[in-house]
Every structure is written in structure tokens, then in C-alpha cells.
Amino acid sequence: MSKLDLVNEAAKGSRRALARLLTHIQQGDQESIDSVLSATSVQSIGITGPPGVGKSCLTDCLAKFFADRGERVGVLCIDPSSPISGGSLLGDRMRMEQSGVDDRIYIRSVATRNSHGSIPLRLKAMISALSISGMDRILVETVGVGQTEIGIVSMTDSVLLVDGPDRGDIIQAEKAGLLELADVVVVNKGDLPGSEQAAANIRSGLALGPASNVPVLVVSALNRIGINELVGALDEIQPRPSVEIVKCRHRLSSAIIDEVVSKKSFDVAVTDLAEGRISIEQAIERVFQE
Ligand SMILES: Nc1nc2c(ncn2[C@@H]2O[C@H](COP(=O)(O)OP(=O)(O)O)[C@@H](O)[C@H]2O)c(=O)[nH]1
Ligand SMILES: [Mg+2]
Hints:
The structure is a single chain. This protein is α/β, with parallel strands linked by helices. It has 2 domains: 41-238, Rossmann fold, CATH 3.40.50.300; 239-290. It has helices at residues 3-11, 15-26, 30-37, 55-68, 87-95, 97-100, 119-132, 147-153, 167-175, 195-207, 227-235, 241-261, 264-274, 280-289, and strands at 43-48, 73-79, 105-111, 137-141, 158-163, 184-187, 216-218. A 7-stranded parallel beta sheet has the order 3-2-4-1-5-6-7, with helices on both faces. Strand 5, helix 9 (167-175) and strand 6 form a beta-alpha-beta unit. The two termini are 34 Å apart. Bound molecules: guanosine-5'-diphosphate and magnesium ion. Guanosine-5'-diphosphate binds next to helix 4.
């Protein structure tokens, strides 16, 4: 089947064609990427925050909620540790068991380890592919709070930052610069002590800056409490031009970094640098010469 046939089959609703198309895109196949990028993408929500705060559980709740109101939902789980069959994927699948059995919800894990080239750029194409194949909404769950995560959530239309009741969680997200990208903040594990206090701390932190209107909600993914209100807040997200600029900066810089780092000359330059053969200026020159 040609790449274009795959796109057509995926558009007709073939999940197999969609899966193959996504694999091609994930592997960086330019023809596949080009064949979907012109499509209009449906709304995508990036779900980010420190590990263990309950992103997978919450993604599951949200996917189920959207599906229950008649939407078809695509879920991309960005998973740096998993070469597709690894442990964390299995864990996520188990936590996503409620969504997993629902045919209005399509879940796809995107392994990023050992991938050459730009995941954020490919993510855009993956979102397009899911849109072409009839999804009404796309959820993108990231794994942590690093630079890669910022690049990833910058590719989505809106950003849901998930925090936990521990003070450390919030500090992690703040440090990573994720707080300034968030359209909605939730403190998950609302069933545990400290969550209301954590939310109050975040609210007072945000009140001083440009993101003072960003809603901060307490939810419990485990007990499915507060999900209605969360979806209400997600539905009401308004575009913010100042955040769009920050996002575009992250999009572009992470794409550039990924592009440069995936060059062959980059690895060579690193070795030469480590062994003292060249200066950092020479290393830069070599990489950009390629
Ligand atoms: N008490 C409580 N635990 C939760 C809640 N949501 C998730 N968890 C637990 O937190 C752990 C991590 O959840 P997971 O969704 O994998 O977190 P992720 O790493 O952010 O994706 C799991 O053991 C969940 O059962 C919640 O609302 N309340
Ligand atoms: Mg997870």
C-alpha cells in the first residue's frame, strides 16, 4: 500500500492503516509526514506534569468523559523509556484500562528513546494523522517535566498541567517553566491531605503574574471527582497571545535542537570535544556545516 493509500484508508476509518501511518511518521518518514501536514487538526490538549502525579489516570478519565459525550478521542502517550513493549507502557495501559476497552478511544504509545530527529515535529504530524482519521479531540500525555516535555506540549493547542499534593511536585513544574504554559492547572489526588493547600499555593503564586486568570482546580482521578468541572474549564480555554509567543519559541527551539542533535556531525563533534581535539566554537562550526 502506498503512503497516500494509507492516508486514504485511515481517513475512511481503518485503524490498521492509521497505526501504520503513525509508525511511518514516528520513524520520520518524510513522505508520510508531508501527506498529513496540510490537514486541519482538531483540538489537542497536552497533559503534562511531574511523574507520578496521576497524568495517566487523569488522561483516562478525560478520554472516557469526552467519549461519553460522543467525541472520538485519540490519545498519544509520549514515552521516552519504552521501546514500545517496555514496562512503563504496560503500567500506563493498565492505568488506562477503562479507556482501553472503548472503541471510541484510540490509544497510541510513542516511544522516543533512540528516535532520531524531532519528536515535536513528528508529533504535529501524528496529531494531523489522528485528525484525518476522524478523531474529534486529541490528548497528548507526556512523562515528566523536562525540556522535551516543553517541546511536546508546545505543539498542542492547550496545556493541562497536573500537579500533586506534595510541595515538591509544584516546584518541579515551576522550575521547568511549565506553569507559564498552562491553560488549566489541576492538583490531582484531591482525596489526599494537602491538595487544597497545594492548590491555594499555586493560585497565590499565579495571582502575581500574567497567568492570574488560569483556573486551578482540585480533582481526584482515582475517585473521579471534579472531572466535570475540569472539562468545563478545558472547554472555556481562550487563546492567549502572550503564551502563544512562548509556545512558538519552545516549538522552534526544540525543533532546532532536535534537528541539530540528530546530525551525524554532532556525535563526531562531541567526541572530538571530549578528547580535546577541538574547541567548542570549532564544534559548533562543524555541526552547522553539515
Ligand atoms: N490517591 C490517589 N492516587 C492517585 C490518583 N490518581 C492517580 N493516583 C495514583 O498515582 C500513581 C501514579 O499514577 P499515574 O497516572 O501513573 O501517574 P503519571 O506518572 O503522572 O502518569 C498510581 O499509583 C495511581 O493509582 C488520585 O486521584 N488519588
Ligand atoms: Mg503516565
